[in-house]
Amino acid sequence: MTSGLGRIYAISAAIVVFFLSWAVIAARPWVEAPTAKVDPRLVALDARERNLRKDAVQIRAIVQKRWALYHTQLVRRKHLIAVRKKAQAAAAQQALIAQRSVVRSVPSYSAPSSHVASAPSAPIVRVAPPAAPPATHTKTS
After folding, report:
1. Euclidean distance between CA atoms 91 and 97, whole angstroms
2. Is the Cβ–Cβ distance between 52 and 44 less than 8 Å?
3. CA dist 16 to 19, 57, 61, Å?
4. CA Rg, the chain, in Å?
5. Which of 38, 67, 81, 130 is the most exposed, having the fewest neighbouring CB atoms within 10 Å of its CB?
6. Angstrom distance (rounded) from CA 132 to CA 88
7. What does the alpha-carbon distance between residue 100 and residue 106 come to, in Å, rounded to a whole number?
8. In whole numbers, what is the pLDDT of the chain averaged over residues?
């Protein structure tokens, strides 16, 4: 090889082949990649997460059933309260009507004011029940 340009091309090709072979040999494609070591803590954490997700789904179903039952009982209880209030209001109205009819049917009596002097009324005496014992009892040391 007497040409200078030919020598430069030959040296360039040899360098490219050299580095390319170096890269292939360094990659070692004939050796299998080592399996990654699995940390047992991560495995346990993953298992716990799966269990918690499963439990969360079950708990959510239980809560929804209980909420539906509570809601139906609440509606029924509100209805009963409304019916009871209407019945109490009707009973109070009937009692008021009955009281008014009794007051109107009683003859009014007026004593002649000239003959009888009004006697002083006796003082009203109220007897209070004995005081209840305290709700809590504490010992002092």
Report:
1. 10
2. no
3. 5, 61, 67
4. 51
5. 130
6. 32
7. 10
8. 84
